[in-house]
Amino acid sequence: MEEIVKANVDLESDFVGRMILEQGGEKFRQCIQCGMCVGSCPNGYFMDYPPRKFIAALRANMLKRVIQSNTAWTCISCFNCSLRCPSGIKITDVLIPNLREEILLEGKTTPQEVQKALENTSRYGNPLGESPRKRADWTKEIGIPVKVLPQASESVEVLWFVECYPSYNPRNILTSQAFARILNALKVNFGILGHEEFCAGDDVRLVGEKGLFEMLIEHNTKILNKYKFDFILFTDPHGYNAFKNEYPKFGVQYETMHYTEFLVDKIDKLKSLFKKKLNGTVTYHDPCYLGRRNGEYEAPRELLKAIPGLKLVEMPRNRENALCCGGGGGGIWLDSYIREHSKERLSEKRVKEAYSTGANILAVACPYDMSRFEDAIKITGYEGKLIVKDIIELIDEAM
Amino acid sequence: MKGDIFVLVEHLKGEISDITFELLSCGKAIKEQTGGTLFAILLGHNLKSLIPDLGCADKVIYVDDENLSEFSPEAYKMVLVHLLREKDFLFFLVGNTSYGMDIASALAAELEVSCVVNCKDFRFEEDNFIFITQTHGGKILNEVSVPNKAVISILPGSFSAEEGKREGSPSIEEIKSPVSLSTLKVRFKRIIEPEITDVDISKQNILVSVGRGIQSKDNIPLVEELAQLLGGVVGSTRPVIDQGWLPLSRLIGRSGKAVKPKLYLALGISGALEHQEGMKGSELIIAVNTDPTAPIFDIAHYGVEKDLFEIVPLIVQRLKERKGS
Amino acid sequence: MKIIVLTTVIPDLIEELEISPDGKSLDKTYLRYIPNELDDHALEEALLLKERHGGEVVVLALNIREETDEMLFAALAKGADKAVKINGDFEGIDNHAKAKILRKVLENFEFDLILTGVQTVEDIDGYVGPLLASYLAIPYVGVVSGVSYLKDTLLVKKELPGGLLTEMEVSIPCVLGIQAAENPPRYVAISRLRQMMRTAKLEEFQCEKEKNGKIEIKKVFKPEIAGKAEMIVGEPEEIVEKIVKILEEKGIIK
Questions:
Q1: Which residues contact A59 (CB under 8 A, 6 or more apart)?
Q2: Which class would CATH give B4-176?
Q3: Closest to B62 measured CA to CA, from B82, B84, B39, B85
Q4: Those residues with Cβ within 8 angstroms of residue A354's Cβ, 6 or more apart along the chain or in another chain
Q5: CA–CA separation, A284 and A287 (whole Å)
Q6: Cβ(B204)–Cβ(B260) under 8 Å?
Q7: What is the pTM of this model?
């Protein structure tokens, strides 16, 4: 009891004050402590203060305990809790990011991996710390022309916002190159921003760095305003989510589309271009930020079904029940930290689930899923038995 | 250019460090152009037994003082300023080490002579010395010319220690400290040894070393497996140690151990100068790094421009297969 | 404790470095400058000492590039009490001249301790720390990775080869060249940084040019490609085969 009396009341009221300024932030007050969140959280079994307990602590003026616990850095922003909360509390988008912001503002207790990723993003426009001048290097020597807008003076129909991992990570670059080939085959008039493109910032936002997120929005908006295009196309669900749902809150509105929706519109044309028959059983992993967060479940499946020679099977946890790969919300940077607390990586659980369906191909539609699952396959010993491919790559292979 | 060359003898725990012999070897090479005498200056207490190892020098000036038993930058600076002020030296050579970095510039400032640091070589041209220094993490070299009289700080591994080693009997001048060292502003208290709960990597024949490219503590077991299969041990660069992924005893470089194994496998290591200093002398260096401009490739014998995570598992597999058959 | 921290920006090595047409310096066209990482450590150590013992942390920097402003505001956002920007003509300046300028500016400050990163990537004519200490006639210890303050003296841990540390007692005032702070440099949230940039003021000093040391940089160039590693190319499996062969040939594996 004494501790409650001595607690720093200002801390809680400042925190709440910040939260209610955000869209839907005040909804946390309607928490009925049902526990739906904890139950659906894949890391709930080791998170010190999962959402229910977090809100209870907040109400009891014990926020300091939550700040000092592992909570902030064990959430992977998979959106399960937010989707299911009967009170519609903005757990993933408001509650957790504000908790993380508290820690970032304090500065000293920020995990090094997160600090490095954020410092890299603010300095180089990408969390990997790669030179911005090399952001479009992946387009060189792929044998097909890719318009990099600062140089190409014509306007384009489609602005493909490539994002960081797909531009710099060697494995994800293969997917980007395959997509360029597909767009070329479909005779789409597209362009990319090249070195002017900065991270869209969805993870920066989820990790609570509001100031950096605003900076990225300002930068990207300034760049995009230089060019004419009909809409922005994404191969990365996180970039898609940022532009579709978050940038408008800052008055920045663009037509956005994820590649699965874009390609499914052209499915007949694609079918006519398929020359090869692939051979395999494929199961599809719904990325959190395409599926649960943005409700797109069917277009990816339509595409897979259209590829000749592939048989599509479903994992038990599919669509809104899909099991997160563990890479979102900073998870891709905090792998070691989270692993220390958990019994098994989510990505390892997921590849086991994928294999159990009888599939030999695990299809993904998000760059994080790619690295997370490929690493998990190495750890679980399924190498040679299960491969990970982006839907883009499967389409490309069939052409 | 004419004049005498002076070399600072660096010693730790009663043994002369290799850098001293490298400096003597450099001093010898300079003397070939200038004539003059090659002096070695030894500061310490009860260290006469070390003098025969300094046979490469023409003369040894040995300053014995109780207050010089252990290194104090202040004590060294005071003694050397007094000594060198009297001498007509051309160059005073020190190692670009933890000791040398403290005193080289200060000495130059007090004696009002030039100073050049991070030297790795020199050239003699038209009666002038041009020193070659390394900057920008090893990516840039600079040709620096100095007028007469300079303090030159030389990177370990730049000259051959072997050529600076010679048993002999140089003429010895043993003196007391020319200045009182009883009230020093920098006083040695104690040496802190690293915890010896771990292997001594400097005694290993095979080292598999990791840098930032290893990305996470979780990837260390993979490298340990490789090291084990090769009969060696894992070492690393500073960033990995700072993150706490490996103990300090595994640090290779200026602040860590110097190693000369038969095989040094550098995985995800860029090859910063401080690290290079610790492993340059390895017999066979194979470096794996995705960055083709990484300085490690300048000193490696073989290079692989690939992601270590692509290569290492395959090597492990191959080695297991070989063991099996 | 009154602590001064000397900071500087340096070229970011992540970009390709180009040589200027006259071959005597780096081409600055695409050069990005970032805070010297070791100075970040020095600042962190200063802030930790202030948190433990009270006092004031003042950060100084020569305004050699526009990126200096952001570095100073970040220092304020981290908790420094004052940030001082020293303006002047710094074209072709070396560490001797920098140290002389700093000595002049420091006449305006009282201090117990001066911390700075032990080195930067650009040092040629010596290091700023020991040069400044000499000009100020105060002691210097470098390659320091731990500082404790006990009743008017400092206890510092100096790194030696082989993972050894030597602990030394240093009288104040003094200059310390920091190799590593006890904790990694803390994070500055961008919102805090921007807030500082909007509201805080940097103290400014104008300084006269000082003489460089007596050395001359005749040429700046990139190391030669010759003598580099023999690159092993091909598919990963091919590369591994070649590596295994080399190891066999050298008798490293049977």
A1: none
A2: alpha beta
A3: B39
A4: A283, A285, A315, A362, A373, A386
A5: 9
A6: no
A7: 0.88
CA-nearest of A129, C95, C14, C62 to B136 is C14
Instruction: Name the residue among B105, B114, B144 with its Cβ closest to that of C131.
Output: B105
Nearest residue of A to residue B245, measured between CA atoms: A336
In one-letter notation, the amino acid at residue B124 is: F
- A105, C189: Cβ pair inside 8 Å? yes
Domain count, chain C: 1
Kindly report the CATH number assigned to the domain that includes residue C123: 3.40.50.620
The CATH number of B201-324, from 3.10.450.50, 3.40.50.920, 3.40.50.1220, 3.90.1150.10, is 3.40.50.1220
Residue-by-residue pLDDT tens, chain B, 325 positions: 788 999 999 999 899 998 999 999 999 999 998 889 999 999 999 999 999 999 999 999 999 999 999 999 999 999 999 999 988 899 999 999 999 999 999 999 999 999 999 999 999 988 889 999 999 988 899 999 988 899 999 998 789 888 899 877 889 999 999 999 999 999 999 999 876 667 888 888 899 999 988 888 888 999 999 999 998 999 999 888 877 789 888 999 877 888 889 899 999 998 887 788 888 888 899 999 988 888 899 889 999 999 999 999 999 999 998 887 5
A110 at C interface, C-beta within 8 A? yes
Among B209, B277, B208, residue whose Cα is nearest residue B239: B209
Contacts of B307 in chain A (CB under 8 A): 170
C209 token code pair: 């040019």
Strand, coil or helix: A82: helix
CA-CA-CA-CA dihedral for C231, C233, C239, C244, to nearest 10:
-30
Which pair of structure tokens corresponds to residue A350?
């997921």
Q: Decide if C167 contacts B190 (C-beta within 8 A).
A: yes
Partner residues linked to A311 by β-bridges: A281
Contact C231, B305 (CB under 8 A): yes
Q: Are A122 and C190 in contact (CB under 8 A)?
A: yes
At position A360, the amino acid (one-letter code) is N
Residue ranges per domain, chain B?
A: 4-176, 201-324
Q: Which of B243, B307, B313 sits opposite A112 (nearest CB)?
A: B243
Contact C208, B127 (CB under 8 A): no
Whether C251 maps to a domain, the answer reads no
Contact C189 A124 (CB under 8 A): no
Specify the residue for token string 């993904």. A364
The interface predicted TM-score (ipTM) is 0.89
Contact C187 A107 (CB under 8 A): yes
